Amino acid sequence: MPGDLEPLDHDAVLIVIDVQQGFRDPSRGPRDNPRALARIAALVDAWTGAGRPVVRVRHASTTPTSSLSPGSPGYAFEPFVAEIDPSLDVVKQVHSAFGGDVDLHAWLTNRGIRQVVVCGIQTNMCCETTSRVAGDLGYEVVFAHDATHTFDQVDPATGQVVPAWQLALATRSNLANGFATVGRHRGRPRGGRGRGAALRG
After folding, report:
1. DSSP 3-state assignment of 122?
2. Is 8 within 8 Å of 47 (Cβ atoms)?
3. 4 near 184, Cβ under 8 Å?
4. Dihedrals φ, ψ of 120, to 5°?
5. Is 7 helix (H, G, I), strand (E, B) or coil?
6. Coiled-coil segments, which residues (predicted)?
7. How far apart are CA 60 and CA 75, in angstroms?
8. pLDDT score, position 190
């Protein structure tokens, strides 16, 4: 989407979704965007360095054999996310961060926050679902698409593999049609508390 997305609101929240070690599991198959974690880390650094709020989300799978089930090594955050001192922690068993163990909508509403920036794993799953729900709830959503990644999937109708990059493209198109502004990360904050950590269209 064309256009400059900076500055953001002074209290724009960064929602960091499911950046957990279980997504390293090779059984998940090929993925896109190998620089995603570095870009997520850059956004986290920008937000924490500017004293802005960060919501850290973790998926707790109810499938015992899942690499994201509580108690499994993969349930752990990636180290740079584990080190965050978040404004709010959310644990969820569903795709949307708004369906977790904490009422995220109430938390945002009580603080008068109307703008959220979404990054994390997976692009077309929990990141897209959270963005759609946020948009329907009336938030101004910025989807940092290059600070997300996903994996190849199989089309059940044809049995064909849908590459991760195609799934990400579909997510960008979906969200840009009424749910979110789709932008790219820029890891360097601009102007600290007074101006938004930088994103661009």
Report:
1. coil
2. no
3. no
4. 130, -150
5. coil
6. none
7. 7
8. 38
pLDDT at 186 over 90: no
> Which CATH class, in words, describes the domain spanning 13-200?
alpha beta
CA 72 to chain centre: 22
Alpha carbon of residue 103 to chain centroid: 17
Pairing of strands 153-154, 13-17: unpaired
How far is the C-alpha of 122 from the C-alpha of 145, rounded, in Å?
10
pTM (2 d.p.): 0.91
- Render pLDDT for 108-117 as a digit per residue (tens, 0 to 9): 999 999 999 9
Tokens of 27: 């059984």
List the Cα angle 91/67/123 in 5-degree steps.
Answer: 65
CA distance 4 to 15: 20
